[in-house]
Amino acid sequence: MNCLFRKVFKRQGSFSNHLLLMTAVTVSILFLPSLLKAQLNYKPLAINNYRESRLKKDSLRQKECRQKELFDLFRKKGKKQKPPKKMLLLILPKISSNPANGFMLGVGSSIGWYLGPRETTRVSFIGASVAVTTKSQLLSYIKSNIYTPNNKLFLQGDWRFFIYNAPTWGLGTNAPDTTFISDSWIWEGADLADSEGDYPMHYNYVKFHETVNYKLIENLYVGVGYHLDYYYDIKDNKLDFDTIPFQLTPHYLYSKYHGFDTTKYMLSGLSLSFFFDSRDNMMNPYKGYYVNINYRINTTWLGSDQNSSSLWTEFRTYVSLSQRTPRHLIAFWFYGNFQISGHQPYLTLMSVGEDQNSRSGRGYVAGRYRGEDLIYGEVEYRFPISQCSQIVGGVLFVNFTTASNRDSGVQLFQYIRPGAGFGFRFMLNKHFRTNLNIEFGFGYKSKGFYLSGTETF
Known about the structure:
Layout: H1 2-12, H2 15-41, H3 45-64, E1 87-98, E2 102-113, E3 124-133, E4 138-147, E5 153-168, E6 199-217, E7 220-236, H4 250-257, E8 265-277, E9 288-298, E10 308-320, E11 329-342, E12 373-384, E13 392-403, E14 417-429, E15 434-443, E16 446-452
Antiparallel strand pairs: 1-2, 2-3, 3-4, 4-5, 5-6, 6-7, 7-8, 8-9, 9-10, 10-11, 11-12, 12-13, 13-14, 14-15, 15-16
């Protein structure tokens, strides 16, 4: 037996060497996990200090790079800021510009406040203004979006009185195709006096729209409303029966064909609405959805010249592109207005730029495209320019409009008019997210300059 062992270990090495090898392997297997764990948790002091330093710097930078507003530039450094107020009241000169109104000067007030706890109640907003324009217009309005405590009720109002003059171009997005509008970026707005294919009009306008909406479940509302649109002292500047042939206008022809008075008319009716609103801020959302469906019935017993009905649909959403910078996002806006039954007076037909905030169709004059049915869509890219303070921001946008002319057989999407442009944002109040906006828009044979005080949508 001894001889056998000696022969075996003689070939493979001494017995003592093998015993030491077996012992080393066993110890390694038993203690290897502990050794690895200790090695992984080991961090040199220099690396620890470097990482702690980086974390402190990142934390300090994140604190310093919080959203600021324009007025922060004029505050003394080190001065402790006051906590955000529950109400914001601004009474300021109203200065703005767009192609339809030209330069606008007046006085405006904006009130933003919370009727309940900020955690459970959205901000409410009322804006009022009286202004005159370089186009001899008087514009006055009160617009309101009010949420009661815990968002139980939502009241939406749009009241206006205008002494107005503006051209029309007929119905449909092809009417007329030859018109060219150029304003050379001047603050007085587009020169429409002699634009080819336009039909200037003067009229007075009273608008009273008010809806009351009740919350069914979180973010979902059902409501009823009353809507009045009254146009009077209507004058068609190019309408002329003293020439041969007569000089007729789209407004006159449409009104006569459908049995409306050419000097005044009224649209008065009730509405039923459903809408979903999960936006985090009404004036300048960073996230959420907004869906609005409103069915309006206009009847003669409420004062309308004729019975009719229409459907309004609207969708908005905001897609964040950065968790660190909420205002870096892409925003989407689509709406459609459709005549369901009967006929409506000419000026009450939906046109681009005549939404509640009069902000659609950048690149075109308000009222440039009008129809019994109209669909509008817009996509806007919003981004910060001043990366740390985020006081200055920018936007890039594209939009499209399509409108029908049923009497001429023009259908939706038969003609589409695109628009695009860019703009700048200056944060005025970081708590209510109010901006000063400067924008340049380009459309089909058209362009415009825009100066405003609230986000487009």
